[in-house]
Amino acid sequence: MKPRLLILFVFVCASALFAGEETADPRALDQFIKGTTAAQQGNPYQAIFFFEEALRIEKSAPFLYVALAEQYIQLAQENTSSEALSRAEENLNKALVLDGRHAPALELKSRLYAAQGKVREARKIVEQLVADHPERREYRIDLLTLCLTSGDFPQVDALYAQLAADSNEHSLDLTRQIAAVYLMAGEHTRALPYMQELSTADTTDAAVAYTLGTLHLQASDTVEAARAVDRAIALDSTDTRYWYLKLVIEFDQDRYDRVLTLARIAEATAGPDARSANLEGLSHMRQGDSTAARERFARALELDSTLYPAAGSLALLYDGIDSLSLAVAYYEHAILHSDSAAIYMNNLAYTYAVRGIESEHAMTLVDAALELEPDNPSYLDTKGWIYYQLGNYSDAMRWLKNALKRDRDSGAILEHMGDVAQAAGKKAQARKYWQQALSAAPEMKSVQEKLAP
Fold it and tell me: What SS3 state is found at 238?
């Protein structure tokens, strides 16, 4: 807007604002126009001077206090001045003393509070604005945004439904904002309808289709998940994330041959991917092919050395063939790179325990695991087994009984209890525990052998 047109526009607006004031002084109007011009030119200091001059002449116009507050906020943003923010709030309060329902003052005060992290106070003000002006869509959007910030998600959904029902206007930006916050907050069920809406609005966005697929999968709707990820791949077949999600869907349905076939197609189309290689390894494990599994887990680590599940699986495989040095190395690798290392610390502790070696280190490892998951029956069992290897049968039985309380149908724990009882010379009790173990897990050959005549 050109300067002369701007001054004319401000003059018209200010005249309307002053119209209700019979005693309004034209000198205040003149200062207001000068202040507004300075504000438009990006000079908050000069604008503040003129607005204060206007208020010196005319103290009963709320909008003048609001205009002054706006410039103090601008000043605070430029200079990070807390004093300027205090002056802004002071002037807004003066405006509200004159008119407690002055919408511009309430709007600005709510935004000031929101910027300061006072979300509850900001929300209370906007709720008043919504009550006073139910026809103002923008106030309900402001309220929705504040509810989103404060985590009042049921209210967000309710406000969104009202906005959608009350108006033909629709902003996908608001839908994206809500979906993004829900996704970051782990509110996947709430995010799902918003992502569906975005996907319907734009059928060419591969990323939206992919995200929708992940949400359907988390909701255990594999049919819709597969449909969404197939659309993502059709739109962009070069993104390894989309292929990986497709592999996960197949893996979760125990279609391991399909996983391996699609993994080869994915690598040829989108390039190698560590997570996909790890999933291939797991598929080979499920099929009983340990050699192929080790090769794919090693490939996964070659592509991403921080992919600790692959290291943990390799450790388990090498432990199974009694390759202790490699098992230990891979467990330590998994512990190093894992953000939830309890299972790997326990597994390494148990690897030592069953061999009766490194007992002190094993105890340190399992204690660290139990600190993270104090009620995990497998970890409690490991601690009991370490005591058994140390010949401390009373403590061993105490920890094993503690483990059994948390997993009463564990054949492994019951077998260990029988072993401890046998070592302590309680043969009848040992047979009782082994019989219970066999009832819980009839396939346990080690228990069958112990119960043989």
Answer: coil
453 found inside a domain:
no
Specify if 69 maps to a domain. Answer: yes
Contact (CB, 8 A) for 300 and 281: yes
In the three-class reduction of DSSP (H, G, I as helix; E, B as strand; rest coil), residue 381 is classed as: helix
Rounded to 10°, the helix 240-252/274-286 angle is 20
Place of tokens 């490939």: 299
CB crowding 50-64: b at 16 or more within 10 Å, else e: bbebbbebbeebbbb
The amino acid that residue 426 corresponds to is K
Contacts of residue 415, Cβ cutoff 8 Å, sequence gap at least 6? 433, 434, 437, 444, 446, 447, 450
Burial of 110 (0-12, 13-18, 19+ CB in 10 A): buried
The domain total for the chain is: 1
What is the Cα–Cα distance from 227 to 213, expressed in whole angstroms? 8
Does 84 map to a domain? Answer: yes
pLDDT 10s digits, 233-286: 999 999 999 999 999 999 999 999 999 999 999 999 999 999 999 999 999 999
CATH, residue 64: 1.25.40.10
Residue-range definition of the domain harbouring residue 87: 1-116
Side-chain-side CA neighbours of 273 within 13 Å: the count stands at: 23
Other Cβ atoms closer than 10 A to 253: 12
Residue pair 359/390 in contact by the 8 Å Cβ criterion: yes
Nearest Cα residue to 37 out of 26, 50, 21, 28: 50
Angle at 11 between CA 135 and CA 24, to 5 degrees: 90
Assign 386 to helix, strand or coil.
helix
Is 185 inside a domain boundary? no
Quick: pLDDT tens for 383-436.
Answer: 999 999 999 999 999 999 999 999 999 999 999 999 999 999 999 999 999 999
